[in-house]
Amino acid sequence: MKTKWLLSSSAVMMGVLGLAGTFIPEEIAKALGVDPSPVILIFLQIIGGLYLGFAMLNWFTRSARIGGIYNKPVVLGNLMHYIVVFFALFRQLAEQFHFLFAILAVLYLGFAVWFTLVLRSNPLSHQ
User: Fold this and answer.
1) Per-residue confidence (pLDDT) for residue 1, from 0 to 100
2) Residues 78, 86: contact at Cβ < 8 Å?
3) Residue numbers of the chain with a pLDDT score lower than 70
4) CA pair distance 37, 31, nearest whole angstrom
5) Burial of residue 116 (number of CB atoms within 10 Å: 0-12, 13-18, 19+)
6) Which of 8, 65, 83, 111 would disulfide-bridge 70, Cβ 3.0–4.6 Å?
7) Contact between 71 and 52 (Cβ < 8 Å)
8) Do 84 and 90 meet the contact criterion of CB atoms below 8 Å apart?
């Protein structure tokens, strides 16, 4: 299992979401049908900053040994993020279907499973 692919793809996805949240929060709010009030816009920018931080963490850790006890905080942080956001998206989809949320839910589930496999694997087999 190549963890470099996992962390690189996770970094790219989070980077895109982070840049969008940081630089076009008003457009995101309108696309989601939410009133772009100052509070909503600042929350979207804060979330964008969090995504950019995670993207940088994943990008600069992509070549390190990952799995088992190695870089466990990186794996657990990513795993927690992907699981929590997946369940939030799934809950929203149960109430009202939205195509974008469905695509994101599938992506988040895939990353959650992948990070779970890395957490439970031998890091020497990743190189």
Assistant:
1) 59
2) no
3) 1, 124-127
4) 14
5) middle
6) 65
7) no
8) no
Give the structural domain span for 64.
Answer: 3-125
Residue 117's pLDDT is what? 92
Q: What domain count does the chain have?
A: 1
Nearest by Cα to 17 from 100, 109, 77:
100
Q: Cα(31)–Cα(92) distance, rounded to whole angstroms?
A: 16
Torsion angle, alpha carbons of 7, 113, 53, 98, to 10: 120
Query: Distance (Å, rounded) from C-alpha 91 to C-alpha 85?
Result: 10
- Token pair belonging to 15: 């980077």
In terms of residues, how long is the chain? 127
Could you tell me the two tokens for 45?
A: 């920018």
Beta strands in 1-127 (DSSP E): none
